[in-house]
Design goal:
The complex is a heterodimer of chains A (about 120) and B (about 550).
Chain A (H helix, E strand, L loop, with lengths): L1 E8 L5 E4 L5 E2 L11 H16 L3 E12 L2 E4 L2 H8 L14 E2 L2 H8 L7 E2 L2
Antiparallel strand pairs in A: 1-2, 1-4, 2-3, 4-5, 6-7
Chain B lengths: L5 H22 L5 H10 L2 E3 L4 E5 L5 E3 H14 L3 E4 L5 E6 L4 H10 L16 E2 L14 H11 L14 E4 L13 E7 L5 E7 L11 E7 L4 H15 L10 H8 L1 H15 L8 H10 L12 H10 L1 H10 E3 L5 E6 L10 E3 H14 L3 E4 L5 E7 L3 H10 L14 E2 L14 H10 L3 H7 L4 E4 L13 E8 L2 E8 L11 E2 L4 E2 L3 H15 L6 H8 L2 H14 L1
Parallel strand pairs in B: 6-7, 7-8, 16-17, 17-18
Antiparallel strand pairs in B: 1-2, 2-5, 3-14, 4-5, 4-13, 8-9, 9-10, 11-12, 12-15, 14-15, 18-19, 19-20, 19-21
Helix pairs in contact in B: 1-2, 1-4, 3-4, 3-12, 5-9, 6-8, 7-8, 10-11, 16-17, 16-18
Classes of the chains: A alpha+beta (about 120), B alpha+beta (about 550).
Bound molecules: iron/sulfur cluster.
Iron/sulfur cluster binds next to loops of chain B.
Amino acid sequence: MSQMIIANRLIDGLVVFLVSGGQWDTAIAQGALIEEDSEAQRLLEVAKQDQARCLVIDPILIQVRVENGQVRPTEIREVIRAFGPTIRTDLEDTGPAVVISREADRRADGAGHLRRSTKE
Amino acid sequence: MYRYDGFDAKFVAERAAQFRRQVTRRLAGELTEDQFRPLRLMNGLYLQLHAYMLRVNVPYGTLSSKQMRTFAHVARTYDKGFGHFTTRQNIQYNWIKLEQAPDIIKELANAEITSIQSSGNCVRNITSDQYAGCAKDELSDPRIYCELLRQYSFLHPEFSYLPRKFKIAVTGSPNDRAAVAVHDIGLRMHRNEQDEIGFEVLVGGGLGRTPYIGQTIRNWLAPEDLLSYVEAILRVYNMQGRRDNIHKARIKIIVNQMGIDKYRELVDKEWEFTKNGALKVPDDEIERIRAYFAPPAYERLQDLTAELAVARKADRAFDRWLRGNVIEHKVPGYAIVNVSLKAPGRVPGDITADKMDAVADIADKYSFGEIRVSHRQNLVLVDVKQSDLQQLWRELFALELATPNLGLLSDIICCPGLDYCALANARAIPIAQDISHAFSDLDELQRIGHFTINISGCMNACGHHHVGHIGILGVDKRGEEYFQLTLGGSSDQQASLGDRLGPGLPQAEVPGAIRKIVDTFLKRREHEERFIDTYRRVGIEPFKEAVYGSESQAA
Ligand code: SF4
């Protein structure tokens, strides 16, 4: 099983993943897949320096799996952090609803930014 | 409504400016997270799974239309266009950016709203009956005493670092709609033998990991002694409460460990020193605060029973809504209208910015510009003319805010759970959505009658699961989400904690289990019994058998 480093970005709290170049990205697909424990520890140190530099909060290592080409955390909590709330929009009878999936946001404006879309 | 005086306004503005400096220093790297966390929490700013969350106080659940528009503006400008009303009558925003939090807090302060003391080990928002001031069964408006306590406890230096958070609820009616028995202090207004109004004081109630129903520490307390007595309770707690173990730090733990008699003795001893001192509340102070809650300029009207009967006959949907969501008002010709935030399949307590604005407009048009938030996560328009009911209903219906399910099975209380909350074990919202979707047939809901389902995503019990007729608690079972059901809880004047039904169930099985419980109830029900009455009469066994079968019951 692979690992990845996840944190919240200080300035807006959004979930970010450590990228191989040492930057952070809101898309899990960009996150560096870590195979070796030694590498995991080394990158965690890098992440902690970013915490000390007030870029991110609480960086941790999580377990991930690659399924059909998509990276997915193994724990439900991290899945929700990676892909956004799982509020169901298929159950509504009628009328508008707020769709707040981060994936949908990203598709909509390409930046993983916050946006409201309505199903009207 | 209470309006800020010069002191309040100046203070809150100063605090907003102070918070801005703190955020600037944090972003500049001058403060570590450990240094900054307590500062942001003092302003109600949490870090959740996906973003910061801001919890904003709605004192005793009373809001002006202007304040509701400010909430809408914040939702639209700084969040994803919606907000979530909570079981503490507050609003939470789930997608806040730290860099924008100071602007939000400043905008809120301009509308006389704060998030101060919505977090931390202090006296939190004081909650009350959402129908306060208008309910027919009320002795006196509880908000006067809530406001008195709010002013007293706001940034009180002695009580800013209690062992743990502290929640007070006040009801002015014998029919408890404020769940006072599950608060650290619950105040129940009633008359003594001399026909004077005072409070029964309950202490040590609370949910969470170790739930307790509050116990009566004093049968009757004169309003003039309210502050000194509450102070004595707080002071004893501050000295005796445990600071070594967060799970044992609430007042309920010490009250139950030492026993209510011993706790009373300590409080009385403390009270001796203070009861005739500066905290005695003079009548004119109570009257001064009462003036803020003066009733609006009601017209002299008659109840419209006959006219409404005609309208109801002509329109079944209107009839259903009127019977379900509209409550008697103490003034003839007026009514209290509950605005359901529980449409089938929706997130309980969530409302979009556009709907917040619409509700504000409706409140201006029909209800003297005032809106209430209930701890059951609905909104209320408390002063509606009966002659406006049908038109109001049409407008709410168009906004999908007229689901006639108040107090019915789909009027679910639900915390944010693992979809947002960093402390959660399991998701709560999708369960609520599944259940309200499965039980969306209004005829069926009405047949089932009064029924409460309360869902929490973890032991912290923000969804008050212990006091739901059915409580649902999310638990983590080896990394999987499971849901533990309890039956027989209630938060009204006959408060009780639910009994555990059996082993936790996976999410997919929960709606089916609810269905089995309901079917069993309908089979066993006598006359027009409510579920809770049937449950108290027949006990848990038939429900256990229905959900788990007779074999697993033995296991
Ligand atoms: S009950 Fe638990 S999961 Fe729900 S809001 Fe409270 S802390 Fe979060």
